Amino acid sequence: xxxxxxxxxxxxxxxxxxxxxxxxxxxxxxxxxxxxxxxxxxxxxxxxxxxxxxxxxxxxxxxxxxxxxxxxxxxxxxxxxxxxxxxxxxxxxxxxxxxxxxxxxxxxxxxxxxxxxxxxxxxxxxxxxxxxxxxxxxxxxxxxxxxxxxxxxxxxxxxxxxxxxxxxxxxxxxxxxxxxxxxxxxxxxxxxxxxxxxxxxxxxxxxxxxxxxxxxxxxxxxxxxxxxxxxxxxxxxxxxxxxxxxxxxxxxxxxxxxxxxxxxxxxxxxxxxxxxxxxxxxxx
Length: 284
Description:
6-stranded parallel sheet; UPF0759_sf; DUF72; 9 strands; alpha/beta; globular; DUF72 domain-containing protein
């Protein structure tokens, strides 16, 4: 029984390990959280040495969800991308099982009519990796038939549907600069909590007020607890517009799930940070 929790990145100016040398920040982060989103690979495929460094700084059970390059998913839309895909797969190979799933994030313009192209793309990928697909077009969330067609394509590839839950964030108008910025950028779609595989992945966006964030994730505590009882091994990523308290929130979420599923092992205590943060990490 295993629940991985993490954030959108492994360093942030508000986190004390941000003052460490860049080559040591992931190691420090991995003592707080057990997973991280792989957003950096969306913008540039890393050299092998970089992925080897990531692996060296984390335990074998740590989970990365590296994102396919934007040239593949957004710019060329799966057409003529063989070289880019091969380079990406080669680059993340040093992560081994730490690459828990490779993330196919699709733009909001990717509509139900484009699903056959996704099906072809997934069929051509090696089965040595797991895959997770994030869609943002409203039709996938509003129509059961459309959602079912996508689920069939994902099931055929053994891929997971990766939801980004922004329902709590959009419940009330923004109240900070970071929230106002996120208001214009984040997808506004219905909450989805159906797992297709034994390793569901969830992205949850709360508010800059930690209490609001905690209150909004209550349904996810129940859902994730149910997945664990079914023998699944989920990964949950906690976001807020400013992400200042994201690592603490990730650990708090794990604690809340463990309260519902006592058999879940607690997270280890974070390693001491050999740095001098301006303020300690606290939630409330």
